[in-house]
Write a structure and sequence with these properties.
10-stranded mixed sheet, 4 domains, Jelly Rolls, flat, 21 helices, Spore Coat Polysaccharide Biosynthesis Protein SpsA, Chain A
């Protein structure tokens, strides 16, 4: 029996609409065993929480302190020893702790002998140590030698390493972001080997005079491991007196100067033009008063410059200090995303610019004296090349705790003036504090959009899709082409016949075995529009202006594909863009969160560049689609063909954009259903293997999914094996 609003689905699949999902475990004939037993079964899950538990009732009812956490592999296999106390009256199985989908097989329990128990435990401990490697073992405190004195404890630790892993930020800092004395020594030696030793100008902008914010930032400068820098204090309030937070007797005090309110902006340009800043390789680090730099912040910036000497802009990840000074709320950022920068100032409070590039941006004196970091970053985005922007995947600054006193990092006026300078017609509105929606104006004659909808039977689903497109869309210049793949259902055939007589709709027949790529390619061949929209027949329009939004993005510089935000009928997110690599190949981000949930660092509610989007609703240029050969009909007939197309679009020098403002429902594979046959599973594995081989250079680094995050699944959880390089530790020589 399942509880907590669980909905049964075919072939052992279930959906829990609200967690936890609970089953009563009913023995088949035999009494509930006690002692050591082997628990076996399968549990495949999709959702934000993978916590499975076996609760037991000893006579006084179930309680939160009487449960066993079983060992479940990432492939969903339950195969492990558990100890059941004597006197159990009933068992209850928790498949998931939150809403999500899962497939559950019957559970099997078999008592084991003492000898079998020892052999099984020893085998798992040794095999886990070999397979998982030293880093994972260290993070989870798994010590294989422990089996010699505590076999059961070592076995339990090994079991925790089999499945999906989570780690708190506090633990992550301890393992991956703390510097030892040995690290300090190595960093010092690494600095001595630098071939490029730029002099940095650290510009601190303060709006509150010489208060605790400025003092905290100045202290962090004194602790820097790379000390080849000067300091400029920009007094934006006019309240900064002689007390600046710099020790008058310190060497740092002699490297500092103040630019006060009312200064001539030309003075800043003159300052940037001095020989030590004008020289190639000089950089300016912009910092907000109150932010605290990590002690290795400037070192990491310069270390990356050793290998990216032509960099124009460098930025890093960040976190926040709470009221007690503890580090919380990490924000692990994507690589360079111009669209995300228009949506929010994701670069944040520490940005490092090449000095001569700042002069090229123009009006720098005015910008540094009065504007914020968002405007400065947007000015650079107007001409900088992608390869000239460096994202350092490390937490190099901590946002200070000052409650409501902190000035907003994002500026709607900065976005508006940025678009105006580029001559881009658009309106900008604030959708949430610090998050903006850019509505790009369409050309005077909007391009014709050809909407290609493959289908087979399920006439009601098709009708819902087509009628929502025709009845709700406010975009005027489009056609609908339904590609029928051997429908036999009378209702469907009747509806298809009715479409053939309606203006702006056509029906084409694809009388061959199902091949999703081939069907779409066939449909695109018969389109008349400049823009092609691939649309699944199990979608339903929510936003009337969905096409205006998607085509508006597509019309921007070098954009080749635009994807939409897809929701389940209950309002939860089905597709929030795709990450390549996490989950084993490619998977949807922000899956199953609420429709208006901001997601990780607000990324579920703002437009942004991504590696890929789903083909369930995708717009692209027809000529680009045909130049690239469309979807792969040979190797990717069913799955991953949309992701592959997006990656080829990016490889050809175009951008892929995801917008949350074009919303549709997605009932997901309704007309074909979920094909769970062994043949289908084998085909999916084959197509996934094809993708992993073809795009192996991206599988370990999607530029829009931070390497400090888990690649086990795209849920933005912290990785227990972050794929980052510590230049001082791993012998990366300058």
């Amino acid at each position: 029996m399942i509880r907590a609003d669980g909905k049964s689905r075919p072939a052992g699949r279930w959906m829990a609409r609200s967690g936890p999902a609970l089953f009563d475990v009913v023995p088949s004939g035999n009494p509930i065993p006690s002692g050591w037993v082997l628990l076996e079964g399968e549990l495949l899950r999709r959702g934000p929480d993978f916590t499975a538990k076996l609760y037991y009732d000893l006579g006084s009812g179930f309680s939160d302190d009487q449960f066993i956490t079983p060992s479940i592999s990432r492939k969903g296999r339950i195969h492990g020893l558990i100890w059941l106390p004597p006197g159990i009256r009933a068992l209850r199985w928790q498949a998931m702790n939150q809403a999500g989908e899962f497939e559950q097989s019957p559970l099997r329990m078999k008592p084991v002998t003492a000898a079998e128990r020892v052999l099984r435990m020893a085998y798992r401990v040794v095999s886990t140590a070999i397979v998982k490697g030293p880093t994972r073992c260290r993070v989870f405190g798994f010590k294989p030698w422990r089996m010699l004195v505590d076999l059961e404890g070592a076995y339990a630790a090994a079991g925790r390493l089999r499945g999906y892993h989570s780690i708190s930020y506090r633990e992550w800092i301890r393992h991956f972001d703390s510097l030892s004395n040995r690290d300090h020594h190595r960093i010092s030696k690494h600095i001595g080997r630098f071939k490029i030793r730029p002099r940095l100008m650290v510009v601190i902008r303060t709006q509150d005079g010489a208060g605790p914010k400025l003092a905290a930032t100045v202290r962090s400068l004194g602790d820097q491991l790379y000390q080849h820098f000067s300091v400029v204090l920009v007094d934006q309030s006019g309240e900064l007196g002689e007390e600046t937070g710099l020790d008058p007797g310190s060497e740092l005090h002699g490297r500092a100067r103040i630019i006060r309110e009312g200064s001539n902006p030309a003075f800043v340009d003159e300052l940037l033009s001095k020989p030590d800043q004008r020289a190639e390789g000089a950089f300016v680090a912009m910092v907000e008063a109150g932010d605290v730099l990590a002690e290795h912040a400037l070192y990491r910036i310069v270390a990356d410059l050793q290998h990216r000497p032509k960099a124009v802009l460098l930025y890093s990840d960040s976190d926040r200090l709470d009221s007690e000074g503890a580090r919380v709320d990490p924000c692990f950022k994507p690589d360079w995303s111009p669209e995300l920068l228009r949506s929010t100032n994701y670069i944040g409070g520490l940005a490092v610019y090449r000095a001569d590039a700042l002069l090229r941006a123009g009006d720098m004196g005015k910008v540094m004296l009065s504007a914020g970091g968002h405007e400065l970053a947007l000015r650079m985005a107007e001409w900088v090349k992608t390869e000239e922007v460096v994202h350092v995947p490390a937490v190099l600054y901590h946002r200070g705790f000052y409650g409501a006193e902190r000035a907003p990092e994002s500026s709607i006026e900065a976005v508006r003036t940025h678009l105006a300078r580029l001559g881009i017609a658009a309106t900008v509105t604030e959708s949430r504090p610090g998050c903006f929606r850019v509505r790009y104006a369409l050309p005077e004659k909007p391009p014709m959009v050809s909407i290609v909808i493959p289908t087979r039977d399920e006439g009601q689903i098709l009708r819902q899709c087509v009628e929502s497109v025709l009845g709700r869309s406010t975009y005027k210049n489009f056609e609908v082409i339904v590609i029928d793949n051997q429908s036999r259902d009378a209702e469907t055939l009747a509806y298809l016949a009715s479409l053939e007589g309606r203006p702006g709709t056509r029906v084409m027949r694809f009388d061959r075995p199902f091949n999703f790529s081939a069907i779409n390619n066939f449909g695109v061949e018969h389109t008349q529009g400049e823009v092609v929209c691939l649309l699944n027949n199990d979608t339903e329009v929510i936003s009337p202006d969905w096409l205006e939004d998607m085509v508006g993005h597509l019309a921007q510089d070098r954009v080749g594909v635009v994807g939409a935000k897809l929701l389940y009928p209950d309002g939860r997110v089905q597709h929030g863009g795709d990450a390549v690599g996490p989950g084993g190949c490619a998977d949807h981000m922000h899956w199953m969160i609420g429709h208006d949930d901001p997601g990780y660092c607000n990324r579920a509610i703002v437009a942004q560049d991504l590696s890929a989007v789903t083909g369930a609703c995708l717009v692209t240029w027809k000529n680009l689609y045909q130049q690239l050969g469309g979807l792969d009909e040979k190797d990717l007939k069913i799955a991953f063909n949309d992701v592959d197309y997006c990656l080829r679009v990016r490889e050809a020098g175009h951008r892929v954009i995801w917008t949350p403002h074009a919303k549709l429902y997605h009932h997901e594979s309704v007309s074909r259903g979920k094909d769970d046959s062994e043949e289908a599973k084998g085909r999916t594995r084959q197509e996934a293997d094809c993708m992993r081989l073809r795009w192996r250079h991206l599988m370990q680094h999607d530029p829009f999914y931070n390497p400090n995050l888990s690649y086990e699944r795209p849920d933005f959880s912290l990785s227990v094996t972050p794929m980052i390089e510590r230049p001082w530790r791993w012998g990366r020589r300058a």
